[in-house]
């Protein structure tokens, strides 16, 4: 859980026409708020602005229509994939634009307060966590590493519920031997993929100050023909990013004979690490 995820959302019914939506926490020496445009925040909201906090921190906020961000309205929006995507993209665009000018602590989507006063009180209570997070991510970025394997051919084993008939006599023994051999091959491929995933993670982690391994994505993300064996994020010094990329390229060449696909992406805003202190994570 990140420091941001411990913050309350809208804790009381709004009394005005707008509420304060907080996107991220910035240090005192960062740039001004991103200009209006693609990074202009939520539709119908006011201009992005910076709200002064304790310890020279600043919150990047926007006044948004209270009627659009009631509990019921948010529930409907988050349950609608298309509307959720629009909302998430607007939030991410603001955070990304702010991060272009310096380190930020991104807050969760729809971090809302009834007014600036409540926002300041809640955020100031977390100032030590925000300061530690900013120190950790300064001069660093998040990189994502994913490793996936091709699934065995569908013909390698009978489909569930439709077993193939076992031939009689000596042919039956040969058939069973083939099935056992196919199962051994599948097991060997799975074990090789898992070993490669561990090796890939250890290789990338050697360039990082912190890392996080997540649950691999399912087929709804990877596609039915791929099986993800590693889904991890790494916090890497900007000066070491090229070394990381070179090491991952070498891994991709090594794993190609195993039928593994290696994907490195970044640099990203360090969403995965803004609640950690140095040394936490894997």
Automatic annotation (TrEMBL):
Superkingdom of the organism of origin: Bacteria
Cellular localisation: Gas vesicle
Keyword Nucleotide-binding: no
Pfam families linked: GvpL_GvpF (PF06386)
Keywords, comma-separated and alphabetical: Gas vesicle
Claim: Chaperone is one of the keywords in the record: no
Annotated PANTHER family: PROTEIN GVPL 2 (PTHR36852)
Record-stated family: Belongs to the gas vesicle GvpF/GvpL family.
This protein's name: Gas vesicle protein
